[in-house]
TrEMBL record:
Residues 110-161 form the RNA polymerase sigma factor 70 region 4 type domain. This is RNA polymerase sigma-70 factor, ECF subfamily. Pfam families: Sigma70_r2 (PF04542), Sigma70_r4_2 (PF08281). GO terms for biological process: DNA-templated transcription initiation. PANTHER family: ECF RNA POLYMERASE SIGMA FACTOR SIGJ (PTHR30173:SF36), SIGMA 19 FACTOR (PTHR30173). It comes from the Bacteria.
Length: 288
């Protein structure tokens, strides 16, 4: 038996992690799925395989679909809003996230959060087609559905997440906006904040029942600002923050006693902050 080699592992692990993270919104789960995929693939006689990449992606996709289906119950009983695990690109994992981001598309927190509105098959087809540019024939082989069905699934998924289209992914431009937001927030410059934040902005605070967080989305500019000022007015003396690259976009990473306390990500469209995502669940934050 000729097994998939260590060279194949080095060649394809980044692609598989990239699929898994976008499918699941979790670094740890994506890494686990990569390992499971290769464990299964190592047992296959690859002389029978016409395309190692396609075979590995098929295993990975179906592993992730199984996880998504089993996770639906957990998602439904999650305490408060659910945000995807932030991908802080300075993190040190066995698979370095700073090296695995093969494309910027489909990586933002806003995009990943919108994926939660899709059924597992819809999520798989949309990502494989729109982000990873697999053909419908390849996708149909991955998920074992007819090619025409995959086209219909893709169209249905696109309609469901159409509201996210138009998101700005220009890092430098978005960082400038976030820097201005921070300055205006610190100076309590209401006029500047009114220009930067949408009147109908929504904030999703994810504490997962592990730390204090809003259990429902906070809507409207006045309520969001009041919530943020309430947090920062209660911050301890050793509180600090930095703007870092998270999921390919600028985000505010806050620290208490040198440890990450929260990560604040943004959905920016038309030079305006439309949504904010505060992740405080310690299970989703780096521990260094």
């Amino acid at each position: 038996m000729v097994q998939i080699s260590n060279e194949d592992y080095k060649q394809f692990k980044r692609l598989l992690f990239s699929i898994g993270y976008r499918m699941l919104g979790s670094v740890a789960e994506a890494e686990d799925m990569v390992q499971e995929t290769f464990l299964k693939a190592y047992q296959i006689d690859d002389q029978k395989l016409d395309n190692k990449k396609a075979y590995l992606c098929k295993i990975m996709t179906n592993r992730c679909l199984d996880v998504l289906r089993s996770a639906q119950y957990r998602r439904e009983h999650y305490v408060g809003p659910w945000n995807p695990e932030p991908l802080l690109q300075e993190s040190t994992h066995d698979i370095d996230p700073s090296e695995v981001v093969l494309q910027k598309e489909g990586l933002s927190v806003a995009y990943l959060r919108m994926m939660e509105h899709l059924a597992p098959d819809e999520r798989a087809v949309l990502l494989l087609r729109e982000v990873f540019h697999f053909s419908y024939l390849e996708i149909s082989n991955f998920i074992e559905k007819k090619e025409e069905n995959c086209r219909k699934i893709f169209s249905r998924a696109k309609q469901k997440i159409s509201s996210i289209e138009g998101e700005s992914l220009n890092y430098e431009k978005n960082k400038s906006l976030i820097d201005r937001f921070i300055q205006a927030f610190q100076m309590q410059n209401i006029d500047a904040l009114l220009e930067l934040i949408s009147e109908v902005v929504t904030l999703y605070s994810d504490g997962g029942g592990k730390v204090n967080a809003a259990v429902r989305p906070i809507e409207s500019r006045s309520n969001v600002l009041a919530f943020l000022y309430g947090i920062f007015n209660k911050a301890p003396e050793d509180f600090s923050f930095k703007v870092k690259k998270v999921n390919g976009q600028p985000a505010i990473v806050t620290f208490v006693n040198g440890k990450v306390q929260s990560i604040i990500s943004f959905y920016i469209r038309d030079d305006t902050i439309k949504e904010m995502y505060i992740t405080m669940n310690p299970d989703k934050l780096p521990t260094y």
